[in-house]
Amino acid sequence: MDQILDWDKELFLYLNRLSIGNWDHFWLFVTKIENWIPLYILFFFLFWKKLPRKKALLATLFTFILMGLTLGLTNLVKNSVARIRPSNEPDFNGLVKVLQENPDFSFFSGHSAVSFAVSVFVILILKSHTKWIWGILIWPFLFALSRIFVGVHYPSDLLVGAIIGILLAVISRKLLRSII
């Protein structure tokens, strides 16, 4: 396990250093949750445009429940594991480009978990109604990647967050299907 954590730190440092100064504003924009509100509005608009009313209402409700459940699980795990963020790691002092400060813990990424959970859930709901819906996967990949470039997450934080988010989305879709 120590070897995996060492590789994770080395990969983080490598990727974090790839961020060139001209991109700092872009990554800061991408990493802010409030900048993605229009995308969520689009998701709900598509639910109501493409689905029957009852299904649209349930899909909207399930999306909010999924977000809350994912955030709750993330915080529970973060506080249990208590992994220090790269930006707060004393061994990284002067080695990490830090664009954002976060005082809480790192493992696993809530940004990654929620964005993958919502995106995959929306895809599973709308894939038979909207051909281009798979394109929304660009969002969680960029959103997660931004967390390395702002200096607050290791790659494993993002990978585990994505896996958790995808699993919760699939489970949520199955629950929704059983209700409908």
UniProtKB/TrEMBL annotation:
InterPro entries with a match to the protein in the record: PAP2/HPO, PAP2/HPO_sf
Family matches, as Pfam families: PAP2
Membrane-spanning parts: 26-48, 57-77, 105-126, 133-152, 158-176
Keyword terms of this UniProt record: Membrane, Transmembrane, Transmembrane helix
Boundaries of every Phosphatidic acid phosphatase type 2/haloperoxidase domain copy: 59-173
SUPFAM superfamilies (alphabetical): Acid phosphatase/Vanadium-dependent haloperoxidase (SSF48317)
Gene3D superfamilies: Phosphatidic acid phosphatase type 2/haloperoxidase
Protein name per UniProt: Phosphatase PAP2 family protein
Protein source organism: Dokdonia ponticola
Lineage per the UniProt record: Bacteria, Pseudomonadati, Bacteroidota, Flavobacteriia, Flavobacteriales
